[in-house]
Automatic annotation (TrEMBL):
It catalyses: Ca(2+)(in) = Ca(2+)(out); K(+)(in) = K(+)(out); Na(+)(in) = Na(+)(out). Residues 10-202 form the Neurotransmitter-gated ion-channel ligand-binding domain. Pfam families: Neur_chan_LBD, Neur_chan_memb. Residues 210-324 form the Neurotransmitter-gated ion-channel transmembrane domain. PANTHER family: NEUROTRANSMITTER GATED ION CHANNEL (PTHR18945). This is 5-hydroxytryptamine receptor 3A-like. It comes from Carassius auratus (Goldfish).
């Protein structure tokens, strides 16, 4: 029996070479090890199982005393199934044996430490979803020689992967889909099995460490206008806020993704927060200058007072507090101060 099995190690195990070998593929996603946004690489751990038939091979299980035997991998023909998205060598432990049943069915299972290419879109970071693919196909044999099929429906593969998932890191497996397209080349058609893996980033860490502190600092900057400008050095307070926010961004820089495809919205949010803080500091400088040099300023134009303190103030629900400044009874410098303060408040509210 051993000699009969080894006879099928050099060539495809079929009686007629015009008969294709049907290979069924099954996989289980055991862990999502990491995602490198800069290199556009996904690192996962898979267990891939394949089955195919050795034609003309069988034995009597009762006479031989077993229904299946294990043989060294190099002793029989193995289909050259590869994952096209592989970017590095397989670092998983090697398996040296396969099972052969008494009906000629070969059972082969191998672990794969897959470092694969994946087009990552981090525009909505940290609330982003990623769709990566694994494409299984024969490296050399066309569909006239090797045909590929899924052993289980993709819904069952997804369920098995969720049950077997051992890592609970930054990424969460949301869905798995599959299809079997046919690629045509000059040499002929190649069977392909494509598995789509949908991942979702767990955003709690980034919301707590990035978004909430930024919102707090911006709120403190907004409420700093409640400080009386005559008795408090408001400019020093705002410069301290800007310095603290800059240090915060430097410390949290490692949490932000780095990629050349597009700019995440969260980076725009941080830049906008910093720009508003700088604008608030400039507005405070202007107010301080007006407060100590208001005698040299001309009267505030009537159209500007009405536009800011009457119409625009309604957008910020400040009309009542602005009515007394429309009467023209305050000093010119005080009118300028109120215009600048309410204009900046409207900018933050919008």
């Amino acid at each position: 029996m051993k000699e009969e099995v080894i006879l099928y190690s050099d060539a495809r195990p079929v009686i007629s070479l015009s008969t294709p070998t049907n290979v069924t593929v099954d996989l289980t996603l055991y862990g999502i090890l990491g995602v490198n946004e800069k290199s556009q690489v996904l690192e996962t751990y898979l267990w891939v199982r394949m089955r195919w038939q050795i034609e003309g091979l069988s034995w009597d299980a009762a006479e031989c005393g077993t229904k299946k035997i294990s043989l060294p991998r190099e002793k029989i023909w193995i289909p050259d199934i590869v994952i096209n998205e592989f970017m590095d060598e397989n670092r998983a432990p090697e398996t040296y044996y396969v099972y052969v049943t008494n009906t000629g069915l070969v059972l082969d299972g191998r672990p794969f430490h897959v470092i694969s290419s994946c087009r990552l879109d981090i525009y909505t970071f940290p609330f982003d979803f990623q769709n990566c693919t694994y494409t299984f196909n024969s490296y050399k044999h066309s569909r006239d020689d090797v045909q590929l099929f899924f052993f289980l429906p993709v819904e069952q593969i997804f369920k098995n992967s969720l049950e077997a998932m051992t890592t609970k890191g930054e990424w969460e497996l949301i869905d798995m889909r599959a299809e079997k397209p046919l690629l045509n080349y000059l040499e002929g058609g190649w069977d392909n099995l494509i598995v789509y893996i949908v991942l979702r980033r767990r955003a709690t860490l980034y919301v707590v460490n990035l978004l909430i502190p930024s919102s707090f600092l911006l709120s403190v900057d907004l409420f700093s206008f409640l400080l009386p400008p005559h008795s408090v050095d408001r400019a020093s307070f705002k410069m301290t806020l800007i310095l603290g926010y800059t240090v915060f961004l430097l410390l949290m820089n490692d949490l932000l993704p780095v990629t050349g495809n597009n700019l995440p919205l969260i980076n725009v949010f941080f830049s906008l927060c910093l720009a508003l803080m700088v604008a608030s500091l400039l507005e405070t400088i202007i107010i301080t200058n007006i407060m100590y040099g208001s005698r040299d300023l001309p009267p505030l134009p009537k159209w500007l007072r009405i536009l800011v303190l009457k119409y625009l103030a309604r957008l910020a629900c400040m009309k009542k507090s602005c009515d007394k400044h429309l009467e023209g009874k305050t000093l010119f410098g005080s009118q300028y101060i109120f215009v600048f303060q309410y204009a900046y408040t409207l900018l933050l509210c919008t």
